[in-house]
Amino acid sequence: MIDKQHITARFIKYITIDTESNPNNTAFPSSENQWNLAKVLEKELHQIGMQDVELDKNCYIMATLPSNLTYEVPTIGFVAHIDTSPDFTGANVKPQIIENYNGKDIVLNKEKNIVLSPDYFDDLLQYKGQTIITTDGTTLLGADDKAGVAEIVTAMEYLINNPTIKHGTIRICFTPDEEVGKGAHLFDVEKFGAKWAYTMDGSQIGELEYENFNAASAKITVTGKIVHPGYAKGKMINSMLIANDFIAALPADEVPEKTMDYEGFFHLHDLRGNVEETVLEYIIRDHDFELFEKRKKVLQKIAANFNERLQQDLIKVDIKNQYFNMKEKVTPVMHIVDIVEEVMNDIGIRPLIKPIRGGTDGSQLSYKGLPCPNIFAGGHNFHGRFEYVPVESMMKATEVIIGIAQKVSIKYK
After folding, report:
1. What is the pTM of this model?
2. 338 part of the active site
3. What is the pLDDT of residue 189?
4. What is the pLDDT of residue 69?
5. In what helix (H) or strand (E) does residue 103 lie, and over which residues does it extend?
6. Catalytic: which of 18, 20, 42, 83?
7. Domains and CATH numbers, the chain
8. Does residue 178 carry a catalytic annotation?
9. The one catalytic residue among 145, 178, 286, 361
10. Which of 291, 276, 278 is nearest to 220 (CA)?
């Protein structure tokens, strides 16, 4: 149904445009390079025949596929983000296409001895015989979330070119800055005008998610005092050593690499410092709201204990909430999840309904009044050099979008 070469070419066009967002810039978008893809998409949406195409001053792109029904059904939406993670470079992506994957090691970069191996990433084996797109090992790929963008554009194009497929009004939006937690901040839900929507931002084929972490960021600033080391006894305060003790005071097993499913964690993702000042950047995650609140208090309590023991206020904790579990907003309208599950079953995909161990624009949108579950986009190993996506998964995700449009037109007739 979906042309394999066409969606592959579209995806590669998108990922070779650098759109890495910047967590240290408060502007919208946080990086100027996001405009480059946004303008490409604006032009492309006009070319395929979408209506009401608009690229606004904050780099949000919205467009409409009008209904071809003689009766009214709810307007639905599909959302994806155009930025890539600042955790690992997305500049100068050099994709590699592996046809008919044989189930063995994939050499991403022979010179640097970078290998994508099923011995370590065993999910690879479920795609034996398929076409896999990888990096060259020096960048991330950008399937998060340019696979989602490619799937939405391809689905809209398919519906336009096949008017016998019945559907109601569909709104689409591509957002900036999802990877730095701001993707939905300036999203105009009223202008979007959908009753509900879906983010195409999940991972492996079949994922269907309506629960996610409650999330916060924490900045721990430790203040020290520099003195000549030869005369430092009783005078120097080494902020790096205090910061090291602070890290050790947190539960050792409550980190991303030792947790799964509904288990929360503290994740130290950045550390920089010298004798006079050390800054620790954490993210705090938990599905359970009470446990989430307790985690924030743990950081504050540790800091208070250190300051009391040191008899100085040397540690400052700054915590900011980022997003909350969308389950509270989606559960009352579970029929929007049921529709996707039915569509997946119809086209031979086994639904994998599970919590998101991360965030999505859908979480914030749900709290802004637009219930927004998350659907697989097909990629694996996001935010790093081992990221890959099977083309067949992108094709199936595109079929899911088309199937949802059809299913809504039938259910609400």
Report:
1. 0.88
2. no
3. 97
4. 97
5. none
6. 83
7. 4-212+325-411 (3.40.630.10), 214-323 (3.30.70.360)
8. yes
9. 178
10. 278
